Amino acid sequence: MNPAQAAVVNQARYSQGTYSAGGDEIDWSYYDTNAVPAAVGQVRYFVNPVGAGGKTIADTNMIAAGQIPKAQHHRVTHLKVFYTTAAAHGTADVQNFYTLLKNTVVEFIIANKYYYGQWCLQELFGVASLFALTPSAAGDNIPLVSPRFHGILPFNTPIQLAENTNFELKVTYTVTPGGYTPTDKLMLSLYGKLSYAT
């Protein structure tokens, strides 16, 4: 192959790959956010898409209520968890937060399978120890006492969510989140490989 022929072959290769007639596969997270309740109870995730129940793109990127859209397949390899406070909390709330992590359970529910997985928030956050300390000076901020913060649970067996599959994650708060307001937010994210038709 002479240089001119090689140039033609390379040019053809460089102009391909962005679009595929057979569909694409990308790294993707479907995420959803809800307020931490002021009392014991359950909160359902991934059941309200953008625009429903006041949800914005900052809260969720679901486009179908409680299901994977048509012509999509999501291979979930990790569950991620994020907690955001709406305001600064006092020292007493450190123990309140630890109690929340220990006594809150997340369940992955798929239609006709029911429980696909159950975890307490303490496990999802990767907190091996929950030990609150009295500050040496009043008002000092106490960080999470743990050997490692993770917040990402990798699945040994990926969860397959085919098109139109109905699913949800249910968060059960078994104790009242003492000291917290309903404006604190808990986000759950389903990370993996999304295949979709183009």
In short:
With 198 residues, the chain is mostly beta strands.
Protein described:
With 198 residues, the protein is mainly beta. It has one domain. It is built from three helices and eight strands. It has helices at residues 3-14, 92-102, 121-125; strands at residues 24-35, 41-45, 72-84, 104-110, 114-120, 152-161, 167-173, 185-196. A four-stranded antiparallel beta sheet has the order 1-8-3-6. The two termini are 35 Å apart.
Q: SSE order, as H and E?
A: HEEEHEEHEEE
Order of adjacent strands in the largest pleated sheet? 1-8-3-6
Question: How many helix segments?
Answer: 3
Low-confidence stretches at least 5 residues in length (pLDDT < 50)?
Answer: none
Total E-strand runs: 8
Shape: elongated
Topology:
Elements: H1 3-14, E1 24-35, E2 41-45, E3 72-84, H2 92-102, E4 104-110, E5 114-120, H3 121-125, E6 152-161, E7 167-173, E8 185-196
Antiparallel strand pairs: 1-8, 2-7, 3-6, 3-8, 4-5, 4-7
